[in-house]
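Is adenosine-5'-triphosphate placement plausible here? Inputs below.
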Amino acid sequence: MNIIEIKGLKKDYPLGNTVVKALRGIDIAVEEGEFMSIVGPSGSGKTTLLNVIGCIDFATEGSVKVGDREITVLNDRQITDIRLNKIGFIFQTFNLIPVLNVIENVEFPLLLMKNQSRTEIRRRADRLIGEVGLTEFAEHRPAELSGGQRQRVAIARALVTNPDIVLADEPTANLDSVTGAAILELMKEMNRIEKTTFVFSTHDANVLKYARRIVKIKDGLLSDN
Amino acid sequence: MKLVLTIAWRNILRHRGKSLVIGVILFLGALLMTVGNGVISGMAAGIEKNIVNGFMGDIVLISEKQKSENILLDFMGQAIEPITTYKKIKPVLQNQDIVARHLPVGKNLTLVLKEDEATPGGAFLLGVDFAAYQKMFPDNFRIIEGRWPRPGERGLLVPTFAREEMANYMNLWVIPENGTVIKEHMKKETLEHIDALTVSSNVVMMGMASGMNSTSDIRFPVTGIVKYNALSTIFGHFCIADIDSYRECLGYFTAADKAVAVPKEEQKLLNLEGTDLDSLFGVDPLIVSNTRAPGGAAVPGGAAIINNAIVSGSSVTATPLGVENGIYNLVLVKLKDGVPYKTALGRLNRALAEAQTGVRAITWSKASGPIGSMALIIRGALFVFVTLLFCVAVIIIVNTLTMAALERTSELGMMRAIGARKSFIGGMFLGETAILSSIFGGAGIVAGIAAVKLIPLFKITSTNDMVQILYGGDIFHPLLGTSDVLITLMQLVFVTIIAAVYPMHVAGSITPLDAITRD
Ligand SMILES: Nc1ncnc2c1ncn2[C@@H]1O[C@H](COP(=O)(O)OP(=O)(O)OP(=O)(O)O)[C@@H](O)[C@H]1O
Ligand SMILES: [Mg+2]
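Reply from A.M.:
I modeled the complex. Tokens:
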């Protein structure tokens, strides 16, 4: 079953008098449980594509379905709820709420969902923190963690709500290669354990070996796998 | 909710500097608001204390014919209409259990005349029964020279302010009979022209009641000089005379009296006997000597009138019963404690109308005209001040919070990206402001209450009347009731909400995309 279905997606950015055509007609389908990478040179449209899938940016033209729902027609409130319930995000930087510690950051989306008991939330957050290997850092604030540890917290938080898709835009770009490799190993492991679909972007060839499916993008168009 | 407040609280600690700026503003705002409200309340209470307890009572009865309700200090206005029905009014008031006491008075403007002075001065004259007056207003002034007139005695109490006015405008320095000039009681300006002053122990006044019989010039023997405890430049306009002399001065005679009273023209003619005709055009003939009759009674117009009056077997200084038959201008009413004015006005007016007294009841604040409104103006000015303070506080808080929102764009956008609604972000900002205003604003209110309670202990005094109005008496004495504190609390909540609205909007409008494009 396809968890993401995109047809004829175009995205234009107005820039002064001209228009930047960031995406120029994307067609793609992503199946449930995939571990997929989008690769392409800088400025090719990777971030733009991920943002549209993640309901962070909006298509200029075309259809985007996330888990059966056409997201191009939704209002802000519905879009926010899809981000909360269906999608997990791992950003390159600025992933965590500075005033909350590790466990509170991981619990945050669950608290927003308001559909589980406090103990249930704590139990689930504990489990994911354990899976990303940060149990002993549970009480630490983000400022007291390394870059790799922060990305691990972000992974735990992205997964804690049991989302349909986890989107990660260059999750390793700010990390050294060893740490980056470890993060990708972890994501792959989580994909295996939680059966969550992962879509991540990169322009680093070293990272590609972790992907089970690779989609290439250039000048806003997909080329063959 | 708990999550929002947790984040809000930790953000306050994280951005201590900004929190402190907002906190200090809220503290000062709440402090000044509390003290301001205290001063306003103290002022209201003080004016009430001074005017109600010392001069006018709570309610004033005026003639139905009286057009202007400003009957205290209206130099330009019409004379106060006479009230001829006190006999009917008295039982009405006595039957009302809401009335504590009442006092009928004559009150009108008079000209103060002096032999060598072409332009007369002006003074208000109150006509009262001195004993009743003392019972009604026991401690509003003290006698600094001379004494109270004895029962039935004719006399005049001159307030210090009126004495200074007479000294300045007419070079007249009045002292009580058998008194001496006490230089310590003179103001500096008066001392400067002390040589020009004529010292006199009586004052000649001419009533100015328009359309009422004929007025007369009466020579009032001064029995005492009085000093008001507060608001002396306002109350000090009023010389207080015995009611009989007052009536004569104003030409107030009832129908019964009229039979014996002599019209003004005649009085003049009578006066002319023994005077040369030329002086008819001067000032002198207007001044009639006041001859004291053995019983302490005096009648204007000299011996001729006295004879006339005595011959007809009637006198304007009759028994107390007779006095009450005469003309007054106002009836001052003190209510029992805690009776709301609205209730009192309703009940009194109904009863007064039923008894066909021809008078109506108004509140002291209406009756005191510009002074009542002066209180309102000061209140208004303070209100404007507090409002300005609000605006400044709101602007600074809005500015600081908006900057904080923009600085946290990445953080807020990220929260939005992982599913936080606009309302959550807004709630965070409201939460921060609310926490700051409960802590700092609360402290400000507490400090304000403490200040209001402590201020009277310092016994800050003033002799300036405007300041006295602000002080609520001669000692600066702000007051705070529960309702004032509640009002301040409401104002604080209002400021908090107003100050948070725009930053909430700004923060809520930050999109996840803003967060990403930032870095
Ligand atoms: N907000 C924007 N306004 C205008 N142009 C934009 C905006 N965002 C992206 N673009 C343009 O769209 C194109 C695609 O940008 P995008 O960020 O998706 O590329 P990318 O593949 O993620 O590149 P990188 O590897 O450098 O992150 C670029 O030409 C970029 O300049
Ligand atoms: Mg990019």
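Short version: The longest strand of chain B covers residues 99-114.
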